[in-house]
Amino acid sequence: MPIANGFISSTAAWSFIATFDVEGYCYVATGNYVPSSMQFNNAPATLTYRNFNQLTSRRSIQGTVGIKTIILNAANGPVIAATLTAPVDPAESIDGSIEWSIKE
């Protein structure tokens, strides 16, 4: 499965933005989740996926935010994993959605 490198940051206590270099294209993932968590900034992240078709439209996600990592599993297969630069305590199991776009 291909792996792309990027970054993830919270935009509020319940939302995030992540960017990844996927074979020369800048893929952007924005999302919301519940419950809210402590905010986090610019954590290095990896995206694991099978094909480009998985990186389209809005999908549901489940995962964990904190204490030292973020793991977001999209319903159609892609996984975003990050090591936090500062602890997010307490860790939260989250549910939400992710939406993909390509930055031109």
Description:
The chain contains no helices and 6 strands. With 104 residues, the chain is an all-beta fold. The chain has a 5-stranded antiparallel beta barrel with strand order 1-2-3-6-4. The radius of gyration is 12 Å and the shape is globular.
What separation lies between the terminal Cα atoms? 25 Å
Q: Supply Rg.
A: 12 Å
Residue windows where pLDDT falls under 50 for at least 5 positions: none
Question: What structural category do the secondary elements indicate?
Answer: mainly beta
The main sheet orders its strands as 1-2-3-6-4
The share of residues in helices is: under 10%
Task: Write the H/E string, N to C.
Answer: EEEEEE
Largest sheet: 5 strands, antiparallel, barrel
Number of DSSP-assigned strands: 6
Mean pLDDT: 96
Large-scale geometry: globular
Oligomeric state of shown chains: single chain
With helices defined by DSSP (H or I, 4 residues minimum), what is the helix count?
Answer: 0
Percent of sequence in beta strands: over 45%
Which descriptors apply to this entry?
73% strand; 6 strands; 104 residues; 5-stranded antiparallel beta barrel; mainly beta
Describe what is shown at a glance:
The protein has strands at residues 3-12, 15-22, 25-34, 43-48, 58-74, 79-103. By secondary structure, it is mostly beta strands.
List the helices and strands and how they pair.
Layout: E1 3-12, E2 15-22, E3 25-34, E4 43-48, E5 58-74, E6 79-103
Antiparallel strand pairs: 1-2, 1-4, 2-3, 3-6, 4-6, 5-6
